[in-house]
Amino acid sequence: MTESSGHIAENIAHFAGVLRRAGVPVGPRQVLDAIEAVQVAGIRSESDLYWALHTTLIHTQDMREIFNQAFHIFWRDPRMLERMMAMMLPELTLPPEEPEEQTSRRLAEALLNQENTPVQEPEPDVEIDARETMSAAEILRTKDFEQMSAAESAEARKALSRLHLKQDKVLTRRTRPSSRGPLIDMRATLRASLRGGDIIPLKRRERRHRPPPLVVLCDISGSMSVYARTFLHFLHALTNDRDRVHTFLFGTRLTHVSRQLRHKDVDDALSSVSKAVEDWDGGTRIGETLRRFNVDWARRVLGQGATVLLVTDGLDRDGAEGLEPEIARLHRASRRLIWLNPLLRFDAFEPKALGIRTMLPHVDEFRPVHNLASLEDLVASLSAPEKKWPAAA
Amino acid sequence: MTISLPASIDETAALLSSGAYVADRSLATVLFLALKMGRPLFLEGEAGVGKTEIAKVLASALGRKLIRLQCYEGLDTAAAVYEWNYQAQMIEIRLAEAQGVEDRNVLAKDVFDDRFLIRRPLLQALEPDVNGPPVLLIDEIDRTDEPFEAYLLEVLSDFQITIPEIGTVKAAEPPIVIVTSNRTREIHDALKRRCLYHWVDYPDAERELEIVRLKAPDAAEDLSRQIVTFVQALRERDLYKQPGIAETLDWANALTQLNAVSLSESNINDTLGTLLKYQDDIAQVRGSDAAQILDELKTAAE
Question: Cβ contact (<8 Å) for B183 and A300?
Answer without folding.
Answer: yes
